[in-house]
C-alpha cells in the first residue's frame, strides 16, 4: 500500500509544527479529539478542495466524522512535510482504513462497503497564522482513484458535438 515510511510525532529532527501536524492527523482527525481540532484549526479556517469548492472547519470535521463512521482502523499519516520556515507547510498525507460501513461523504453519494482495505494519498499545502492555528488548506488528490478503491464503477459518457 505505501512506498515510503510514515513520519512520527516523536521524531526530534522534525520541527514543532511538523510534529503537531502529524499529531492532529493521528489523534485529532483519525481518533476524534474535538478539543485538539478546535485548538489546531482557526475558527475562520477554509479547506480548498481539488474541484474548487471550499469547506469551513466544521464541514471538514463532518467529512472526518463520516470517514470514522465508515472505516475501521481509520488512519491519517504523513510521509513528507516540507517548510521554508514561513507560514506555509506542505505535506504528503495518506488516509487508510478498512471499508466496513456505508460511506456517506463520497462525491457520488453513499457508497456501500466491500470489507477491504482502502487508501488514498493527498498532497496538501497548509497556511498558518501568527497564533499558530491553521487558517487554510489546499488539497490535491485523485478522486477517481479513491472512488474506484471504494468499489465505485465509473463510466465515461462522451457527448457528440
Automatic annotation (TrEMBL):
Pfam families: SnoaL
GO biological process, one term: polyketide metabolic process
InterPro entries: Cyclase_SnoaL-like, NTF2-like_dom_sf
Protein name, as recorded: SnoaL-like polyketide cyclase
Species per Swiss-Prot/TrEMBL record: Muricoccus pecuniae
Amino acid at each position: 500500500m505505501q512506498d515510503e515510511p510514515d513520519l512520527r510525532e516523536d521524531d526530534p529532527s522534525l520541527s514543532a509544527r511538523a510534529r503537531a501536524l502529524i499529531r492532529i492527523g493521528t489523534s485529532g482527525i483519525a481518533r476524534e479529539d474535538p478539543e485538539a481540532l478546535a485548538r489546531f484549526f482557526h475558527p475562520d479556517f477554509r479547506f480548498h478542495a481539488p474541484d474548487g469548492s471550499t469547506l469551513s472547519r466544521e464541514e471538514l470535521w463532518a467529512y472526518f466524522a463520516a470517514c470514522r463512521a465508515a472505516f475501521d482502523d481509520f488512519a491519517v499519516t504523513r510521509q513528507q512535510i516540507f517548510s521554508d520556515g514561513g507560514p506555509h507547510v506542505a505535506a504528503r498525507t495518506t488516509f487508510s482504513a478498512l471499508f466496513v460501513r456505508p460511506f456517506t461523504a463520497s462525491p457520488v453519494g453513499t457508497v456501500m462497503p466491500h470489507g477491504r482495505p482502502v487508501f488514498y494519498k493527498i498532497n496538501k499545502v497548509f497556511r498558518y497564522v501568527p497564533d499558530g492555528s491553521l487558517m487554510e488548506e489546499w488539497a490535491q488528490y485523485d478522486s477517481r482513484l479513491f472512488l474506484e478503491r471504494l468499489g465505485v464503477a465509473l463510466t465515461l459518457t462522451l457527448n457528440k458535438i
